[in-house]
UniProtKB/TrEMBL annotation:
Signal peptide start and end residues: none
Source species: Aureobasidium pullulans (Black yeast)
Upper taxonomic lineage: Eukaryota, Fungi, Dikarya, Ascomycota, Pezizomycotina
PANTHER family reported in the protein's UniProt record: GLYCINE N-ACYLTRANSFERASE-LIKE PROTEIN
Protein name per UniProt: FR47-like domain-containing protein
Amino acid sequence: MALSTEIFEVSSDSRQDLVRWLTPYMPTCIALCRRIQFGHFTPGSRLLSSVNFADPAHEGHANEPWIVAFIDRTCRPETEVWIAASWEHDRPADDSWLPQAESLVKPIIERIGKIKTSPQDAGVVVNSGRSTELPSTFNGSASVDRDHYLQHLQNEQIALFGSIHSSTCTILNRLGLVDPKSAAVSNLPYRKYMFDLRNVTPRSLPPGFRYGKVDPKDYPLVMSRTQIPRQDRTLIKLPSVAVYPTDTSSTTPQPIAWGFLGLDASLTTLHVEPAYRGLGLAKSLSLKLFSEDMNMYWQHNPITGQGDGHDEERYGHADVATDNMASQRVCESLGGNWDFEVFWMRVVLA
């Protein structure tokens, strides 16, 4: 039987069915799955799938190749598209999977290309300050500056795809869908670190510090410390933890360290000011985020086995550039492991 290449829109009523469908493919599909679980869907958000979840018989297609995409083009210049596909989780050692993968990637990109940005999205202004500490910022690459992340902003026919598995990256390149002007950056690998959060617990800070949240008044400070574009409208949605000194007379103290969980629940924008490094604050912030702000993802989590619930899926994740050694050390200190790479790609939609 020929593989169907029809693409369906997943309704709000079918989102939990989709999450259950994705669970056996964890942790490979974690970025897409967490983005769906996080919610905060805008009127322009779309979920597209090669599986028709409105059809009660969709379970019968579980052994066929599939692809799913979440799209929100109002997020420009941040990540607009997340994708997961069956071949990312378990694919043959030979190239037999490539034709089927290409036959699903093509139509879903065509559908994404029909989702237009709104006029206000094209006019987004992002804080243009640069940090002098770029090699130490979490996630980003020391070899990429802020301008690289903004290159596509004025061209609505180019969308930023985030946390794309290396196998799907291969397909996008084979099909010639990667913006040639940014191919070098689009093919910059990031290590996907996975964390087992079933037994994670926070730890106390050293004397002289306290935990808090990141205050919106400090967003300019946060954005000045990373070359990755961040916007107020995004940051205000995200769980955050900050560290403040207790020995200050200021009524509005600034944080000296902070971290967020991204739209896809990845550990992101983790930063410690230079004067306070070496105290274990990055690890403490991460554990605080993982232990207190990930519970929403377990509330309706499918059980992955037949046990008493301890085998419930409880993964955390982070994406770190391969040349960002400091952030890699933080992930490893948290018990993180990586076994595949992901990419942020500018994809040409038309």
